[in-house]
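Expect chain and fold; thus:
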Amino acid sequence: MITVVELLQEGNLIIARTFQPTPVCLAVAGIYWVISSLLVLVLRNIGRRPSHGRVA
């Protein structure tokens, strides 16, 4: 017979295994973070450049 405590412990183990981030997910998140940070830096640099357009 399974006790309530054993059932709760097994449920906790299943939840821990299910929601544990995998190394691949962490790697993808890291790559996304690096790319988005680089894009922010590039956009900031573009915004700081003096415009070389014609003066009307």
